[in-house]
Amino acid sequence: MTREVRTVVFDTDLQLEAYQFEGIMQKFPNHFHDYYVIGFIEQGKRHLVCNNEEYVLNTGDMIVFNPHDPHACEQVDGRTLDYRCINIQPEVMRQYVQEITGQDYLPRFTSPVLYQSEHVASLHELHQKILEEQSDFYKEELLLFLLEQLLREYADAEPPVSAQDVTIEIRRICEYIESHYMESITLNQLVELTGLSKYHLLRLFTRQKGISPYRYLETIRINQAKRLLEHGQRPIEVAAQTGFSDQSHFTNFFKKLIGLTPKQYRRIFNHEVDSKRTVVDLS
Question: Which residue windows are coiled coil (predicted)?
Answer without folding.
Answer: none
